[in-house]
Amino acid sequence: MHNKTIAELSAGLKDKQFSSEELTRVFVERAKQFDPKLNSFITLTEDLALEQARQADQRIQAGDNTPLTGIPIAQKDIFCTKGVKTSCGSKMLDNFYSPYDATVIEQLNNTGMVLLGKTNMDEFAMGSSNETSFYGPVKNPWDLNTVPGGSSGGSAAAVAARVAPIATGTDTGGSIRQPAALCGITGLKPTYGRVSRYGMIAFASSLDQAGPLAQSAEDAAMLLNAMAGFDTRDSTSTELAVPDYQATLNENINGLKIGIPKEYFGDGLDAGVQSAIEEALKEYEKLGAQLIDIELPNSSLSVPTYYVVAPAECSSNLSRFDGVRFGYRCENPLNLEDLYKRSRGDGFGPEVKRRIMIGTYVLSSGYYDAYYLKAQRIRRLISEDFKEAFKKVDVIMGPTTPTTAFNIGEKTNDPITMYLSDVYTIAVNLAGLPGMSIPAGFSENKPVGLQLIGNYFEEAKLLNVAHQYQLNTDWHRQIPGEFK
After folding, report:
1. Is 128 a catalytic residue?
2. For the residues 250-269, what does the mean pLDDT come to?
3. Is residue 417 predicted with pLDDT exceeding 90?
4. Angle at 324 (CA atoms; ends 323, 325), nearest 5 degrees
5. Contact 215, 166 (CB under 8 A)
6. The one catalytic residue among 10, 90, 129, 151
7. What is the C-alpha separation between 180 and 473, in angstroms, rounded?
8. Considering 10, 19, 20, 76, which one is annotated as catalytic?
9. Please, are residues 130 and 151 in contact by the beta-carbon 8 Å criterion?
10. Which of 2, 1, 115 is nearest to 50 (CA)?
11. N vs C: which end of the chain shows fewer Cβ within 10 Å?
C-alpha cells in the first residue's frame, strides 16, 4: 500500500479494499522502521493517528467522507497543532504544546485526514539543507550521506521514502520546491495569500506560504483543494474563490507557451542537472508545447534582496520568543535583561541568530534606507520582470536547484554558498507567484527537479502542466532502493 499515490489510496478506501486503520498502521510501522535512518519526524503521533483512523472509517461507513478521509498525512512542525508539540525545529519551542490548531491543520482535520506526526525542519524554517534543526539533520533517502534540502526536508524525505503518503511544507525562499527537487518528489508553493498563514509560526511574513509535498501533481491538487481558501483570521489571506484543482488536470497542453529564462542556464548550473532539464523540456515539446526564450534581467539580484528582506522580517517576528510567555526559559535569571539574553542565546541556534542580527542591522537607524528600503524597490523590479514575461508565455520553466543533493556538512561553514542553493527559487517568493518542482530525472543517481512558475493564482495551470508531463514519464514513481 505504501507505493500508492493518495489518489489510489482514496479509491481503495472508497471501494473498501482496506480500512483507514489498516492503512495508518502500515505507515506508522514504516515510520518506526525507517525514521531512525532518516530523522524525518520530530513527533510521531501513533495513538492520535489510530484514533483518527477509526473515526475516518466510521465516516466512510456512514457515507460522510471526502476524497481525503482516512488518508495519513505528515505535517511540518511549523503548524500549531492542538495538544501536540509544535517545536519549529528549535530548542526555543521544545516544550511548546499548542493550545489551538493552525487553519491548515483545522482544514485537513475537517476532511478526515489522519495525522501521522510532525516532521523535522530547519530551525524556524531558516536553512536550505535541514541541518539547522535542534533535533539533528534529516537524511536524504536517495543517499543517506546527503541532505534532503530545507527547510521542509523532513516532509520531503518522509514522502520520498514512502514513510508518509503526503505531507505539508512551507516555502519562504524555496523551502517546498528545493527539498522536493533534491528528494525526487512533487512540491507546490501556491500564490502568496492562497493558503492561510494563521497558526503557521512566522519566519518572514511577506514571503511565507504553505503548500503540499506529494508523489504526484494529482496528489498535490487533491491536498491543495483542502488547504486553499480565504481565512478571516489571516490579514494576508486572499478573498478569492478556490477552483477545483483536479478538474483541469487532464486538459490538453498543445500550444502551451513555455518561457525559458536565459539567466537560469548560466554559470553555476551543474551539467548533469542541465542535461536532465533539457530532456524534460524536449518531452514538453513532444506534447505540443512551444519553448520561448525570455529574460528575467533582475533575477541575479534576488538572493541579496531576499537576504535583506527575510532577515528583517524574521528579526521582528522572533522578538516574541523572549523567555517570558512561552517556550524556553533560562534557569535562575539574575534580572530581566539576563532572562532575555540567556533565554534567547541558549534557545536559538547559530543560523537563526545570524539572521536575527542581519535583520536587526538592516532595520536600524541609518541603515533602513540604505538596505531595507532599497531591497523592497528591487523586489518590485523582480516582480515587474515576471509580469513582462507572462505577457509572452503561459508558464516559465527551468531547474529548481543548481545542483543535486550535496553531502551533509559540506556547506555548513559557508553560509553564502548555502544561500545560493535557492538561487532559482527565491525570486518566485519575492514576487508572490506560484511555483512548483516536479521530478525530471537523475544526475549521478540523484534526483533532479524541474521548476514550473505560473502567473498569480494559476496553480490549476501549473498542476495541469505538471500532470500531463507525469502521464508521459515515471520519474515521480521512482522510490529509493532501500525504502521499496
Report:
1. no
2. 96
3. no
4. 110
5. yes
6. 151
7. 17
8. 76
9. yes
10. 115
11. C
Q: Using the predicted structure, report yes or no on whether residue 412 has a pLDDT greater than 90.
A: no
Cell, residue 301: 539580484
Report residue 244 as a C-alpha cell: 477545483
b/e string for 362-386 if b means 16 or more Cβ within 10 A? Answer: bbeeeeeeebbeebeebbeebeebb
The grid coordinates listed for 76 are 511540518
* Phi, psi for 446 (deg, rounded to 5): -120, 140
Q: Return the amino acid letter for 281.
A: L
90, 128, 133, 175: the catalytic one is 175
Average pLDDT on 409-438 reads 93
Q: Is 151 known to be catalytic?
A: yes
How many Cα atoms within 13 Å fall on the side-chain side of residue 364?
A: 7
Segment 238-260 mean pLDDT: 97
Distance CA 435, CA 44 (A): 30
**Where do we find the cell 527547510?**
151
pLDDT (tens digit per residue) in 27-70? 999 999 999 999 999 999 999 999 999 999 999 999 999 999 99
What pLDDT is stored for residue 365 in this prediction? 83
Segment 148-157, tens digit of pLDDT: 999 999 999 9
Residues 6+ apart with CB under 8 A from 334: none
* pLDDT score for 194: 98
Query: Do 76 and 171 touch, CB atoms closer than 8 A?
Result: no
Please return the burial class of 230, using the count of CB atoms within 10 Å of its CB with bins 0-12, 13-18 and 19+: middle
Cα distance between residue 446 and residue 406, in whole Å = 10
Quote the pLDDT of residue 166. 98
Cα 439 to chain centroid, rounded:
15
282 is catalytic: no
Do the Cβ atoms of 80 and 123 come closer than 8 Å? no
CB 116 within 8 A of CB 28: yes
